[in-house]
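Thread: quick sanity check before group meeting

JM: Hey all, I'm pulling together slides for Thursday and realized we never actually wrote out the predicted structure for the chain we discussed last week. Dropping the sequence here so it's in one place. If anyone has concerns about the input, flag it before I start.
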Amino acid sequence: MQAPRPMRGMRDILPGEAGVRLHTLQVIRDAYRQHGFFEIETPIVETMETLTSSGAGENEKLMFKVLKRGERLDAALGGSEDDLVDAALRFDLTVPLARFYSINQSKLPKPFYAMQLGPVFRAERPQRGRFRQFMQTDIDVLGDPSYLAEVQLLIAATSALHKIGLEGFEIHLNDRRILEFILHKLEIPDDRHMAAMIALDKLDKQSVAEVIADLEAKGIEGDRGTQLVGVLGQLSDASSLKALGDLGVPKELSANLGAIQQHVGTSVRDVPVIFDPLIVRGIGYYTSTVYEIVHPRWSGSIGGGGRYDQLLTRFGADAPACGVSLGFERVVGLVEELGLLRETGSRRLTVIFEPDHQTAEALSKARHFRREGFLVTLLAHQSGARSPMKRLALAAEELKAEGSVDSFYHYTVGVDEAPRLLMQ
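JM (edit): ok, ran it. Output follows.
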């Protein structure tokens, strides 16, 4: 018999880790609410029409698709894959938000500050901090075309990270229009721009030679690919918006980034905001500003986002939009690795009783102790049977090993006058 296991790229969450995750998620939620964002929910399943209208590029290839049901499936059998499916699990929270806003915009304030916390699904290769099912913690500003939207998003995201206890991270900032300007200057055809951006987005994961080879495979000849990577490398070494002037980049683009850099830099403590021309973000719907949050203890980003002013128009809503998402799985990984959990923990109490004679009293005691703030479970124990103390201690040790910060108590009906500490 085959051993049972979760699907590759997905995992079970044990109680101790679940406690860490729930606490971290609540800290993020509270920080976002403090900055004026309203929480909404969207379904985890969206129509194929919605998801393929987004222009999300590579992520559309990673969808978990859902078969048609009943008679509609029977009628489609024998056709292509596209004939067999009509929905898919959402691959991010941004596309469902655009669909949500197009339907509900008349009921929402303008601009609308949206918060979404929920699971998304991508059929990609699992690796550290990257699963096929994972949580996203997004905030978005819909209806504000100014750089103030990006400023507020980045301040809220950094506030959440600080409240979790993370320090030492940086914000890397860029504008896709700068990259498009450079692509035009190097005479790279317009129909190759998106492919070039997807290839360049891998510069933090692949060698320069591999990226240049990828550019060539996407129809950008070797010399131009080498020039492109070289120009971006020079700008990255300069790490200054002033270097854009030498390339002839329009001043309004650098001025917009400069304003974001200035206001975020003066509004959050100890968080450098750095111009980084290598930040691309490989999702197709981004139109201008893009940014990533990086931490020295984690390869790749722990958060990111950008402006996607044209996405809502695809769903019939004419409104500018931008957002940021914290990579929840990566943030939790850092919380555990750095020992940052600040949760004080709960008091867990096991009420032990003899089921033949003490059930009513045990239930009464449980109600009493819950009113006093304990998390209470009942344990029926026949008199004369082996003491359950060893079993309770082993269970508490296991939960502690998984990351639980709770304290564990026990109370035996008819024996104890008050709960007794088992493990702190």
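AS: nice. The mean pLDDT is 87. The first strand starts at residue 38 and ends at 39.
JM: adding both to the slides.
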